[in-house]
Amino acid sequence: MRLAEASAHAALALPRREKVLRAFALLLFLAWGWMLLSALGTTLHSVDNVRDFRVALGIATGEAFPTVSQPFAASKQLPPVFFYTIALPLVLWPTEFAVFAFTAVAVLLSVGFLALAVQRRFGALATITYLALALPPHGTVVFQGVSNPALAFVCINVLLASYLWSQSARTALLMGVVLAAWAAPQMHPSAFFIAAFVFVASLIAGGRAWLRPAPAILLSLLALVTLLWVMRYGLVAPEAQSLGPSGNSSPITAAALRVLSVEHWGALWSTPWVHLQAIAGLPQWISSAAKIASWVVFASAIFGMWQLVRRGDRALRALAIALFANLICVTASLESWGFWYLDASWPMIALCAAIGSARAFRAIWAQRVLWPLTVVALALPCALFLVTKSRGEYAIAAHGLFLPSPPREETLPVPTARTLIDLRAIVGERAGCDPARVVGIDEAFLRDMTLRTLFLDGCHARPAVLAPSTTDEERILIRRIESKLPTPTEAKALIATVGPYRVYSLRREAVSVHGRESGALWGSAQGARYGFFAVLGLPKAAIIESRANAGASLYVGFRCSALNTQTLLAQIDSASKVEVMGERSLPPFTYAELRLTNATDQTDVLRLTARSDLPCDASAWVM
């Protein structure tokens, strides 16, 4: 009798436990939704993102219809599917926030789709682990933006989910596999290997189901369209750089050496965590735990692949082989990289780590350990989101942003989209159509983000009679709060504080740059399609000068291409005392700020002269 009662109790406990697991999974999903959607604009909006947004806005407004993508790594081009995808929300709402919301919702829905497929195939325990790892650590910040890797991530989520569901042989799901595998590499080429291998695995596992008219016709049409496009435009971008292999090794030999290098494997697959360690405001224990987390998650993913091979059916074994082949090819192909080159592979890591963890923690007592671990897994992305939101910038460690050998140890603080948009509004209100009224090397850095497009748009949209006068008695100086560069001392000089920046008002003094009394010489012509504005350049004998009041200094900000600060100093002459106040870099440009002060009291003129042609823009102000 007692045995029968115990059996009945166990039968009731199992559905109850399943409900608890599903409720917990839903909470994890909602946590990601809160981070992605609660503060739109807490995302990177750098040079490439601004370029892509402007192209998509041109599509939405009917101004231009591009036939190729932006160049990837300054060498490859693809069909412009990404541009037309992000143009869709801009038809209804022509602002950056429309794309932010569109991408965030797409990411969230794709995570939910794959979670349902994991639940159906591997159970609630694997679903919980998957949802804890659903996005890479930087995903809550990077993925809600104008982001190629984010939409490649979405496509791979859809591809994996369709693959797992398509074992039911439904035609719609087979077509989902085709579309996702076709679109993913066009969003970002880093998705090529995983899309190709999973698609081949689907062909092997699906068998005769692929002979049905609908998927066969769709596959044939997409292949034909892609082939015709390649024949017309080619995969090599016009501005491709001819970079040869390093040393005497052939590309195949170099790739093989990367695969055989344990150091390379460790450096590459820890990249999604390493670049976070420069972010100020993150608790120290989180930065330290990031290194450990990278190995734990990766080891769990390898164990999960082994479980698919050992215990899975034909389709799951084919999937495991496809995912392992992707690991090998990505490791072999990436010599130097940005963390976003691994975003397309992240769904594979999260899926396999979930399968491996569910198997390792299948015992009831072990699950009591797994539950708190899933909460801890959300600590890093959640902390990163909150810190980035509060600081208004995302400080990236250069050795995790790009990791060549030897690594650069510098930090590149990138303002969030919200910071840039708010700053853009203030600068637009105070400076209007006159970019010469905004100065500082931080301003120069920001011009290569979004501020230069403000001046271009303002000048095109504003009638000349309404443009602000260049004789207005004000200049606008932009400084990072943590900058050690000098700032105005007058109490009334501070206009506003925007994220990590302060905006100051300076009195407009008589300053000229190469004969321009506005005090600035800036190129505004679009450079390479990679997104930078071309340097206008200072010719030989160009003069930058001012007649400063007693005790005042002339500051000159340079933006130089292929010229470092020391070389710049060797190429200028000045009777005044010249000091280097600060320098920054955002490849391919170097930014430097110089201060000129009177060497004697015999003259109030502060002047420097270019000894040769300088590949530099310049801006000058008195303070």
Describe the structure.
53% of the residues lie in helices and 13% in strands. The chain contains 22 helices and 15 strands. With 623 residues, the protein is α+β, with helices and mostly antiparallel strands. Residues 1-13, 242-247 and 461-471 have low confidence and may be disordered. The chain has helices at residues 2-37, 47-60, 81-92, 96-122, 124-132, 139-142, 148-165, 171-187, 192-206, 213-233, 251-260, 262-269, 271-274, 284-311, 314-333, 346-360, 364-377, 379-391, 398-401, 417-431, 441-461, 565-570, and strands spanning 393-397, 411-415, 438-439, 475-480, 494-498, 501-506, 511-513, 520-521, 543-547, 554-561, 572-573, 577-586, 589-597, 605-610, 616-622. A 5-stranded antiparallel beta sheet has the order 8-15-10-13-12, covered by helices on one side. The protein has a 4-stranded mixed beta sheet with strand order 3-4-6-5, covered by helices on one side.
Secondary structure layout plus pairing:
Blueprint: H1 2-37, H2 47-60, H3 81-92, H4 96-122, H5 124-132, H6 139-142, H7 148-165, H8 171-187, H9 192-206, H10 213-233, H11 251-260, H12 262-269, H13 271-274, H14 284-311, H15 314-333, H16 346-360, H17 364-377, H18 379-391, E1 393-397, H19 398-401, E2 411-415, H20 417-431, E3 438-439, H21 441-461, E4 475-480, E5 494-498, E6 501-506, E7 511-513, E8 520-521, E9 543-547, E10 554-561, H22 565-570, E11 572-573, E12 577-586, E13 589-597, E14 605-610, E15 616-622
Parallel strand pairs: 3-4
Antiparallel strand pairs: 1-2, 4-6, 5-6, 7-9, 8-15, 9-14, 10-13, 10-15, 11-14, 12-13
Helix pairs in contact: 1-4, 1-5, 2-3, 3-4, 4-5, 4-7, 5-16, 5-17, 7-8, 7-9, 8-9, 8-10, 9-15, 11-15, 14-15, 14-16, 20-21
